[in-house]
Fold Citrate synthase.
Amino acid sequence: MSTESVDRYYPGLEGVIANETAIANVEGKEGAGGLEYRGYSIEDLATGASYEETAFLLLHGDLPTSSQLREFDGRLRSSRTLPLPLVDLYRQIPSSIHPMDVLRTSVSVLSHYDPEVNAPPTDHAANVRKAERMIAQMATAVAYRERISKGLDLVAPREDLDHSANFLNMVNGQVPSETMRRAFDLSLVLYTEHELNASTFSARVTVSTLSDIYSGIVAAIGTLKGPLHGGANEEAWKVLEQVGSPENAESWIQDALARKERIMGFGHRVYKTGDPRARILKEYCTRLAAEVGDDRWERIAEPIEQAVTSQKNLPPNVDWPSARLYHYMNLDIELYTPIFAMARVAGWSAHVIEQLDHNRLMRPRARYIGPPNREIKPIEQR
Ligand code: ACO
């Protein structure tokens, strides 16, 4: 029996340092707050790196040279097709099932068809290759299931399009404008990594038993789904719809807070003064609203932000602007969280690989608060 104290208890593990990592830093530069991926600020990555470059950075440790990027991108483009049994499965699964649940199943099925399915879970190089295949295939999985559930013909992946343009083309059957492609790509860059958030933690816990990378990603998808985490981008859109008009914002928020409801898309466990990702994406919401010629949702979002800030002092998180961004791209609300997952898979994989490279089983303790020293009575006396 270990002797660690059960007096020190951190509900929700708040403030607990459970890992060392070289992947992301939420302290920002010199502890001033902000987000960095492998030492690069997200503000710099947002203007200076594509999703492909950022995914390479996370998986391989540094930004790619042009030849490394060409090869990496080539590998992604040539890995986009899905095993046929998975496509057939989409035709069997009821269209009412949420795409996030289907994505969780998809990754599990993809693992069965991975060419290196029998590689040891600690094989670093094989795990990187598996991660690259998942990045490519999860995008196709989200798009194919969406088209099948709507009774639409599939749009095959196009090797002449980058990751973002190809995804939007597969879903909408139309190559996006450059502004849309850029905004979508930026959202993937901002969604792809975030230190030891709940889903990344669950992926690391899963593989800390020396389970495999696919199991880690399946666990992460199940964790991301909840509305307190990734599922919040879908819920944030519902807030906008329910508020319905700029004039309604102040009273709607007041009533919701009086009922002790959570305003989805606001607040954050780590960022108490503002999520830097939300600040970057907001500007792109304005640009896309102008491009589609409809600023209604921007006009509703602004007074909601003001009301939540003034009444509860909670700034928006990344899920608040991303909901509007995806709406302007004509994407179904139920795709918002799966898109988060298909971006985050690069960060999850980097963490899984880091965990397996320096593994120690994750096994915390709980403080027991149940009844003590009970004696078993014979069944007829209970
Ligand atoms: N709306 C209303 N009140 C809130 C919100 C919110 N969005 N967020 C926090 N609070 C309040 C709580 O009710 C509580 O108030 P009280 O002290 O008066 O009881 C206080 O702030 C502290 O709340 P906790 O839940 O303890 O804080 P925590 O650090 O766990 O919150 C969380 C983080 C879960 C993200 C929370 O802010 C929340 O529920 N937000 C809404 C869901 C959301 O947007 N999630 C996405 C997060 S970002 C991401 O995962 C990509």
About this structure: The longest helix spans residues 124-149. The first strand starts at residue 24 and ends at 25.
